[in-house]
């Protein structure tokens, strides 16, 4: 009787009850959705900060945004997008999808999972609390010492920034430990390490990277906090400290961070492209091995962010060579994706559209990466707008494009509704054209000698045309995000029912209901190949014959 | 071989084309906003080098652009082909053939990039050794100039150490003067880079790549040019509020002009009897705590040396022309010109400001 009464009661929970349920949940799916919502909120905030900067750079010596405010926007935009938008959105998607893809009922440590979410969110709030001190820190997102020392950054804003990153960093670490354990320990029967779907595989390696990359950042943040609050001298040159040490510690985190963000996006693309070209991924083993290679090599290339600090020639050449080597496994991935879509029967839905956008744009990001790895060229281009163009091409043209592909791909699974294909196409084209216009000209302004992080520029440099194109591109891109968010929201009400498997896909998340029940699967599945649903749909020609 | 080919033939042609392309679009400035039209455009492009390190880098850049451009065309070409070939299919048709992979193909597209990487690594090593040289060993027969550059928030201090083997030992600010090289007599400029506060970066794109100025470290940079010109640049490492206005000006003068300039800089400040009232006002103000005027008791080291202030074309690290009007504005309230700069407005009377400036403009 109690059960019979309890069931309808869930349907009619008051809003406080719903809130309580979400706040106290340890369900990996609800936690994943909350990560996603948090990330979207911060994405909008970070985007607004970028718009203010683009407004100020519309012309030389404009006085729309004052220097200090611009520098704060520049700092918070970078910090927000990396730590409070990109990382949580990827953590959210991994939280939701990985247990489903490996046929598990939840993450390995559900409570730790909830802790990770709330720490990440709390870190973001603490970081933004810096505005309450009278203004955000103006130190740049990589916060080079000694500009972060108390002498040069007197406001407590910098302390809040440090504390915020420390707290959210611990959140990321707990999330990573949890995800790595889940993938290692909770795979369903039959899913050996060699049969893991590529998205899960790449998200797994990104999280292995988090475990090794976060501690140096945490250590560096504690050191600068001690310098600021307790008069330590880690980065104070006058007292024998080494400002230069900060750069090594930061980039030892900062470079793997790029792959922490890009590997899960690679994974989404590796799931989306096969399904929408109706072909198995080409060269699974090489894709998997290339992922591991990237994860390892990316820990040996950090000083390519520091070619201008005056390291010896030998060290420079080593880091240049190691950085070029990253291009080899990345190239393997690119070629395998192309071979996968080659000869397919494409279905041009939004995930495929963004997947192809990813392929065309990430290639360019990789090639400008090759240019920057060639150390003498880097002497000219580092800290110029060319670098800004390169990494935004990676992050927006690569990572964000992949996230959009993944978001549309899994939206029906998470909500049980289809999104609006028409709105998605509008979003794609606005985003794509806006993207090209925003970041394309930055390559040229960098070549013409424009350094990054300047709040304005002299009248006689000839940079205003390129900056105006960039700004108009940014203003074109902005509505695409509004359309995306609107699509997500309106489709909850108006979207057609999705069914369990709207894409006729092959991995385990499509074997359960949309949205999945709290326990994910009624019975834990058993798999024999990398594409269990293909085997089910094609009993005459199952995959396990070929693996 | 590949590199020297591009350097000798294709290099300048492609660079010229790129430069014209940029220049054409650059001429369209004010296309959206009619912001400015008074000043002629200064070319800071790294495709327009005027110094051996910048030239080596341009040649290498063109080579690497060629390699990456070829990869770009190949891959985007395949992608576009796929887009037109496989985009449409009749609904309800069966699944296409499943291709699981191919070992020979994988080996091929692993080996090809690996080879490109090795070749690029060898070429970049050669250029690295051209660009970064040991400044203790200038070429034989050269007349090197040694200058120590100290980065400050947000201006540049230049200590002239040595020229053609002779010690100099004077200090100036914000505008570097260098001699041009003649055929047969190279005059390389060797900079020693230090910082007084936070990290900065020295970047004059037409002369050399950038090198950072980091507290507690000593860095080096060199260039050499045979073209008399004004080379512009600016600080390239974010260093706080006015990072955007930490501008660099390098004047490459004829040897005669440079040596005249040098002789003047070596002298202590002029003592113009007509400006004694202004001088006394200056020496009685707190100006002397930060600024130095050699030959007087003003010996501050925190702010730019003013001994030969009027030999400089600009004020505030290249922001505004160094005229009497701008000096009046600056002394009255520097924050109006360069908000956030470390010199405050002292709240002086108009009379006092006039008096001070009447002295400053005698410091030629």
User: How would you describe the shape of chain A?
Assistant: globular
Report the β-strand fraction of chain A as a percent range.
under 5%
- Quaternary state of the chains: heterodimer
DSSP helix fraction of chain B: 25-40%
| Structural class by sheet pairing and helices of chain A | mainly alpha
Q: Which whole number gives the mean pLDDT of chain B?
A: 89
Average the pLDDT over all residues of chain A and give the rounded result: 94
Largest interface: A-B, 102 and 107 residues
Question: Whole-number radius of gyration of chain B?
Answer: 27 Å
Largest sheet of chain A: none
Q: End-to-end span of chain B in angstroms?
A: 52 Å
Number of strands of chain B: 12
Strand content of chain B: 15-25%
The tally of beta strands of chain A, per DSSP, is 0
Order of helices and strands of chain B: HHHEEEEEEEEEEHHHEEHHH
Give me the number of helical elements of chain A.
16
What structural category arises from helix and sheet content of chain B?
alpha+beta
Descriptive report:
The complex is a heterodimer of chains A (547) and B (364). Chain A is mostly helical and 547 residues long. In chain A, 67% of the residues lie in helices and 0% in strands. Chain A has 16 helices and no strands. Chain A is globular, with a radius of gyration of 23 Å. The N terminus of chain A is likely disordered. Chain B is α+β, with helices and mostly antiparallel strands. In chain B, strands 3-2-1-5-8 form a 5-stranded mixed sheet. A 3-stranded mixed sheet of chain B has the order 4-10-9. In chain B, α1 crosses α2, α2 packs antiparallel against α3 and α5 packs across α9. The longest helix of chain B has 35 residues. Chains A and B meet through α4, α8, α9, α10 and α11 of A and α1, α2, α3 and β9 of B.
